[in-house]
Amino acid sequence: MKKTSIGFLVVIALWIGVGSLAYGCVISSERVGLEYPAWTEDEDATAKDGGKASQVGVANPRQWRGMEANLVIRPWTAAFKVVTLNLSLSAINRYVFKYSWANISLRTIQKNFETGPVWDNDYFMMNCIAHPFHGSTYFNFARSSGLSFWESVPLALGGSSMWEAFMEKDPPSFNDLIFTTVGGTYLGETLFRISSRILDDRARGLERAGRELVGFVLNPAGGLTRLLSGQIFRYQSSPDQTSEPFETTFVIGRTKAATPWGILQSGGDPFLSMTFRVGDPFIGEADPRSFDFFVHRSRFQFGKKLGITQSGYGYLAGGRFGAEDGTGHILGLFLHFDFRVTEAVRLAGPSLTGGWISRFHLGAKAELQTAVHLGAMLLGTCNNPYVRKAGWMERDYDLGSGPVAKGEAKLSLGKWGTFELNAAHHLLAVFKGSSGADRATFLEASYDIPVYKSWSVGLEYVNARRDSNYRDVPDVRINTSDFRLIGAVGF
Question: In terms of CB atoms within 10 Å, which end of the chain has fewer, N or C?
């Protein structure tokens, strides 16, 4: 009991005792009202009062309503948050939950450095989605402290390295470092930008409470920063300074069988999906910056066929050409993340690709958007029935890396509806698990037609195929398909 009390006191002292000194505050009120030219990418852009945008200490002159707007840049504050988060979680794991792996000492730290990194055997959900979300917390402590995208990446790596080397008795893990850092960077930036668009410091009452709650759930690091700095309660009447496109589509429906008429039969599994498209790479005078546009898809299927998908990509660097009236081409480098749990295959991992994105106007209300990505999965996992495990919390998947190819097309026809096609193919050369290679292909095709304002109805076809070739054990081949009846609403 005494150790538990000490642990809690340590947590309280670290998180609250330093208070505003560690977590910073909103910049002074005379600067809050500064307005900058919409869509500016110039760090020397001037405010309406003649001052430079950089004077307010905002890493990106393009303002966001919530997390990023009006924050002083404090790298040391971000580092403090990451360190105290690790120390706090370590104290809770050791003194409250009493996990044996959390019983650390100088000897365990020395042993970790002597042993060096290994490939651990944690189960799929822990390594492939829990660790990236943990990494997103490190990343967003930096983003909520005013740091830019690239300035925040070292904090994700540093937080993960500190945890692996110092906060566990077990040796550091290669897969944890990669998933926490790279996956955490992707999830961190997407959650940061989505939550920033939900927050609005001009809102009051129940609307304000609802926005803050949703923002906190999506981005706990940013929410905690706003809470401890007092920004969560502070009303600011400055006008909205962001005009970046933000498109959200919610889809609900029912999936049944591999035939269109199957969806009309009784039974079936319900599902929910959300697609976020943030930013528009074809508008504005300058090339976009990292993650100024990204696409993220979240899908959940319930019932007999449990399925979860978290996948998407964000722009890192490149160039734009042929841009005119919202059309043109983008050639660049993209960061992808996949976490797919389907009946056919469970696959996850971050990827780096080169991509070509194009938009064409085909008529007054017709538009075609296409994207092609070719690259490699930095580290991937694929479930393997032949990998032995001691219990449900042990590894039951291959580890590997290999090429990845993705493509998508979206044809908008106004009142005649929208066709959308998304395809992805992964090939993992296994280096830990059953000798061989895992191949996974995913295909989604949909058509919906508007029925009332932003509401639409339609059909969706989903296919997942797994083809694994092994040297010493029988091959594994699974192919599943579903037709879905959908209802969608866009914002």
Answer: N
The vertex-465 CA angle with 459 and 466, nearest 5°, equals 160
Please state the pTM of the whole predicted model: 0.84
pLDDT digits (tens, 9 = 90+) for 234-266: 887 654 445 568 888 888 877 765 555 555 555
- Nearest CA to 137 out of 174, 99, 84, 101 is that of 84
Contact 417, 430 (CB under 8 A): no
Check residue 128 and report its DSSP letter: I
Work out the angle between the directed axes of helices 184-198 and 131-143 (0-180°, nearest 10): 60
Contact 311, 348 (CB under 8 A): no
Element (H, E) at 270: strand 269-278
Query: Using one digit for the tens of pLDDT, what is the confidence trace for 384-402?
Result: 888 765 555 577 898 999 9
| First-to-last C-alpha distance (Å) of the chain | 51
Q: How far apart are CA 246 and CA 218, in angstroms?
A: 16
Q: How many CB atoms lie within 10 A of CB 302?
A: 12
What the chain holds in terms of domains, given with CATH numbers, is 2-233 (no CATH), 246-490 (2.40.160)
